[in-house]
Design brief:
By secondary structure, the protein is an all-alpha fold. It is 88% helix and 0% strand. It is built from three helices and no strands. The radius of gyration is 36 Å and the shape is rod-shaped. Keywords: Coiled coil.
Length: 116
């Protein structure tokens, strides 16, 4: 984006110089030449502005695509981490989940004992 800004700034300064020179032109031919230069620069500035807007939109699109791909990569990394767990860790983790769910069921179905 910096190159767009630098080019646009330079062309805007050139435009100002040409417009000022147009007012002090020595001959009709010189004035006409400066008017043509002003017209061309205005067209170039408009084109650069459109290019800059297009580049900005593309940058946003690419950033969004990068975010999506990064999320996919993170998901795959999580899956690899689970696969890389040792078999003992997987068994321990599975047993822990089963034990916790069984303990909950036992506590939930146990009759309440009153305090006397």
């Amino acid at each position: 984006m910096d190159q767009f800004e630098a080019r646009k700034k330079w062309e805007t300064l050139q435009l100002k110089e040409y417009e000022e020179g147009k007012d002090s032109a020595q001959s009709p031919a010189e004035r006409r030449q400066l008017e043509d230069a002003v017209s061309n620069l205005k067209s170039q500035i408009a084109a650069w502005t459109a290019d800059e807007q297009e580049a900005q939109a593309k940058k946003m699109e690419v950033a969004e695509q990068l975010r999506i791909e990064q999320a996919k990569l993170d998901q795959l990394q999580n899956e690899l981490d689970q696969i890389d767990q040792s078999p003992e860790e997987r068994v321990r983790s599975s047993c822990r989940r089963k034990w916790m769910s069984t303990s909950y069921l036992i506590l939930a179905t146990r009759p309440a004992v009153g305090n006397f």
